[in-house]
Amino acid sequence: MATIVDNNNTDVGSVTSDVVAPTPTTKKYIKPGKFDDMARASQDVLSNNEAFDGMRLEYQGAIGNVQTSNTFHLGSSEEAPPYALTTVFSRGNATVVAKYDSDVKLFARSIYSSNIFTNTFTFQINKEKNIYLGGDAEFSIRSTNLYFKYDTNRTFTANIFQALQKKWAVGLEYANIPSQQAEFYSAGVRWKKGKGETYSFNISNITGFGLNYSRRQNNLELATEFAVSPHPHTGALMSKTVFGARYAFHASLFKIRADTDGSIIGMYEEILGGFARLCFCAHLNYFTNDYKIGLGIQISK
């Protein structure tokens, strides 16, 4: 699977595997989900997107169909803006997300979703007045998922993901990225061995190949990924292995992630009184001896 990293995009949800209830004239169809989400079960555990350092304060509130979030980020070594306001409006099948931060960046996305069709439009502008526009369409027809995307960078992506049986799904993807002068051809297969246990394999002409495994049992989730990819300059093959675990108990959540590049990330969350959440994050690289520590507080009204 060619995972195209788009810094102009923001993940606001995913399509999970589901079963369409049969009608008097149809059979029961297995929905495979999206091609990009083939390894989501493991990526939810292995992703380091939740890691942060410094102090993060967040206040969330809701009035009717509108939800708001005010986030303050202090002392971060990353590029997180000191302040961000996020607003989400939902009604029926439609959702609108808007975000504005202290770096003078405006992000907006509209989503319309039904049982067989999902359409998304994205707009973004920064203080340099660089504008990004993109749109995508997803069709879920019986046991087949089709996806198309195009944006102002002339990036075009199309993929298909097909459920063969209850346990198997296969997919193909094509992506043309003029900004990188590259064309991606990718293929992938997913096997759900049993309840809570999933294997997936993907291969691409440019990004190499990867094998993912995930297992969920009660409150414990385990995941690992092994990937081989060519060096961007020399072409020599490089490998990377990632391990991760996530455990939920009572009102707490613990997550740890480690990889062969030397990175170890640990996160602990605790819900306090049903209206507040305390989060502690530590990031260590045992090759460079660098470390980062973050403390976050989230209050919901």
TrEMBL record:
GO MF annotation terms: protein transmembrane transporter activity
Subcellular location: Mitochondrion outer membrane
UniProt cross-references to Gene3D superfamilies, sorted A to Z: Porin
Record keywords: Membrane, Mitochondrion, Mitochondrion outer membrane, Protein transport, Transmembrane, Transmembrane beta strand, Transport
Keyword field contains Membrane: yes
GO BP terms: protein import into mitochondrial matrix
Family annotation (InterPro entries): Porin_dom_sf, Porin_Euk/Tom40, Tom40
Principal location: mitochondrion
Membrane topology: Multi-pass membrane protein
GO-annotated cellular components: mitochondrial outer membrane
Family the entry assigns: Belongs to the Tom40 family.
Protein name: Translocase of outer mitochondrial membrane
Organism, as annotated: Cavenderia fasciculata
Record gene name: tom40
